[in-house]
Amino acid sequence: MRYLESTSTDPAFNLALEQYAFDTLSKNDELFMLWQNCDSVIVGLHQNTAEEINRAYIDQNGIPVVRRLSGGGAVFHDLGNLNYTIITNAQDAGRLDFHQSCRPIVEALAGLGVYAEANGRNDISVGGRKFSGNARYLRYGRLMHHGTILFDTDFERMSEALHVPEDKFVSKGVKSVRARVTNLREHLPVDMTVAEFWAYLRMTLVREQKMSMYALSARDLEAVEAIRRGRYATWEWNYGQSPEYGIKKRRRLPGVGAIRISMQVEDGKITAFTSDGDYFGSRPCDDIAMVLLNTKLEEDALLEALSAVSLEEYYEGLTKDEFIRLILD
User: Fold this and answer.
1) DSSP category for residue 314
2) Into how many domains does the chain fold?
3) High-pLDDT (> 70) share of the chain, %
4) In contact, 147 and 132? CB cutoff 8 Å
5) Domain end: 172, 206, 240, which one?
6) What is the CATH number of the domain that holds 268?
């Protein structure tokens, strides 16, 4: 088994590195990787991104949202969280053992006096509280198992980023299951920082699993960057990949009145739009529906679509910025 470590905290880069390691580096070998992301939300392959995030909070705080290759639920990453990835052979998908994949982490924690257990569908817990969520990607007889380790994560920030306003979504996407979580640091007999914990895991796993170190070459980094640019840094992958869904929102805005909008969205683009309410306006919203048809659900695209529209004629007192925030937030 080879050990690989990322020095980047860019989630798009790190997910591209995972894919590169899976597709290229580990074809004839097993690989273990430790990595961290800056504040970010990582959504599962089959999820509807819009349904998993608090879009207003995400935009206000510049938090990137990236889709991964594996299924499962949306997770929040920050520098208090440490991620691990195991890539290995798995010829028989029916015999995959989740507990076996988690064993190196569980055994390493025991060395710190923390007695964790792999349980449920994809969790590692301590004292009945989850600190690690795991997911898998299987292709061409190879398995990528990756998971979070909540060590000293900001739960308030996590809750804000993953909190979805109470709009009515109707979606074919897989909704995340919110579980009782804990930071591993709270359960350590002797306190340590996340950097010290990372160093401990590296030392212990390299020794126990007899790993050799792998240093990324300039060619490796160029290939990873190409994957990042072509997939993980794109709106099409992170948002446009979402399943078809519908959303209904109702807001009461000062000086405007109550507005209720209904949208259908497919591949991240608006395919149907209606609005009603007690607002004033001299023109029918059907015109707005035509303008928004096939528009990406992102701020710049909405601004461009509405650039020639006099919104005051449809919603008296409503600015374009307020209208766009109503659609997105």
Assistant:
1) T
2) 2
3) 93
4) yes
5) 240
6) 3.30.390.50
